[in-house]
Model the fold of this input.
Amino acid sequence: MIRALPAVRPRWRRDADVVVVGSGAAGIAAALTAAARGLQVLMVTKELNGGATPLAQGGLAAAIGPGDTAAAHAEDTLVAGAGLCEPEVVSALAVAAPGAIGWLAALGARLEQRTLRLEGGHSRNRIVHSGDDATGAEVHRALREALLASRVEVLDRTVALDLLLGEAWGWDEARGRWGEECGADGWGGAAWSRHGDVVGGLLAATAEPGGALEAGVITARSVVLAAGGLGQAYATTSNPPGATGDAIAIAARAGAELRDPEFVQFHPTVLWLAGATGQCPLVTEALRGAGAVLRDLAGRPLMAGHHPRGDLAPRDVVAARMHEVIASGPRDSVGHLWLDATALGRSVLEEGFPTVTAACRKHGIDPVAEMIPVAPGAHYSCGGVRAALDGRTSLPGLYAVGEAASTGVQGANRLASNSVTEAVIAGRRAGEVIGSELSGGSGRAASVLRMPAAGGGVCPGARPVLAAAMSRYAGVLRDREGLERLGRVLEGGRGARVESGGAVRDRDGGLDLDLPTVEATNLHAASALIAAGAARRVESRGCHRRRDATGTAARAWHTLVRWDGRRLRVTEQDQRADRADCAFGLL
Done:
C-alpha cells in the first residue's frame, strides 16, 4: 500500500556531515546545534519562509509562571495524552521547556514571559506568546535569522525524495540491538558489528518553476527528518500547502518503524468557509482562554455540562463534541458551529488577537459584532517515526524531530502549545547527539549506497478523492466499515487517474517525477499509515475515536507500523514494554 516514487536519474551531487530535511523550529534547532559542534550541515527545504511554525498562533508551553512547576506541566500533558505518553520523556520535556524559551530569547525572539496565557488542557496560565497570536511567526523569524547567519548551507526550493541506504561495519556502543551481530549481551555492549540498513544520505531534487524536478544525491553521515506535517491528507486543514507528510513517507519507504500514526489531532476551531478545501485559517485556542464561547446553531453553549473545563477541555474532547453536534443536524445543515467572541470587546480582539481578527474580516466576518463560524480541521499528527527525544530512530544514521517524530510526548492527543516547545528541545538534543557521535568517530557511514526502488507513484489528480475519503472515513470519528472503504480507495490510488463519479483507477503509463507527483505519493503513504493504525486500534482513545468501539481499553498499547517492501506490518506493543525498551534510548 506504500507506493514508490517514479524513477529518477541524479544529475548533481553534494556531500555533508549532516543533512536536515525541513526548516521549521525542529529542523533549524537541529541544524544550528550540529553546526555549532563544527559539523558541515546542509538543509533541504521546499520553502524556507513557509512551513507550519510561522502559522502557530498560541505559543509555547513552559512552567515559568509564579506557582507553576514542571511536574504540573507534565501532569497536564499526561492527562491530555490519554495513557500513551511516556512519563519519563514528558518529564524531561517539562523540565527542559524553560531552557528552550531562554535559548529562543537569546537568539532574539521577542517573547512575552510575564503575562502568560491559558489554553485548553492546561491547569495554569503557562503559554509564552508573542504578538499576541503570532508567536510562531516570531519564533521562526528569530530562528531563520540565526540560520542565515550560521555556517549551515540551505538548499531552498528543494524537495527530499528518499533516503539512501547502505551497509556498513562500525563500533556500536549505544545501538547494538539494531545490528545483526551485537555484543555478548545482545543489548548494545560495545562491539564491532555488521549493520543491516544504515542511512548514508538523501536523494533530493531542486524544484524548477512549474514543478519540474532535477534530482541529485546528497551523501551524509546523519539525516534528520523534520518535515512532519500531513494535514493536506484531509479535505480541510490548518496546515499549509506543503504539509504533505513528506518525512513519515520517506521514513516508511526506507523501512523505519513508525508508531501510533492513527492519532491525528483535529483543531476544534478552524474558520469554516463555504465550499473551502485545503488550508483554512486557524482560530487560536487562546481566544477561548480569554473568554470566547463555543455555541451551537441555536446559540446554546456547546460544552456546558460535557467536561469540567468546558470550552477549555482537551482538543480531542471539544472536536468530538463539535463533530457529534454537526453530524446530528439536519441533512441540509450548514456544517459548522459558532465561536462567540463578541463579549471580549473591540480592543481585546483587535489588539490581543490581530491575526484572527484580520483573517475573519478578510472573509467578511467581524468578530467584534458577530459570531465566527468554525468546524474541526486536521491540525497535528501525534504519531510518527518512532524516536527518542534526541531524535534517534530504528535506522542507524536517521533522526526524526518535531511533528515527524513520535517521541512519547504527545501520546494519544497533543496538549495545546507543546508542539513548538518539543520541536525546539528535540531539535537541539538531536544536534547535540549527532555532534557527539560524529565528532567522536562513532558514527557509521555506509560503504555502498543503494538507489531506492522505483515505482509508479500517485497521480496528483487523485488527491481530491483521497482527501475526501480521509475526512469521511478517518476523520474525527471512524468505524470498521468506513476504514475498509478507505482501504479500497487507497488500494486504487496506484498511479491513479480520477474518472467521472469520483472513482480512482490505475493510470495507463508511468508518471513523470515532478513536485505534485511527489506530494501526492507522500500523502497517499501518510494516509495508508493512518488507515492501518486506525483499523488496528479498536477502541476510542485521545484523538482516535471509533463509533463502533466507544470505550477505552484498560490496557494501553502502541501501534507499531513498518513497511517491509511488500506490505505494511502492523503490531501492538504494550505501553509499559515500550517504556522499558532502551534500544535507542528514551531521553
Q: What stands out?
A: Residues 95 and 417 are 15 Å apart (CA to CA). The chain has a mean pLDDT of 89. The first strand starts at residue 12 and ends at 15. The chain has three domains: 16-263+382-457, 266-378, 458-574.
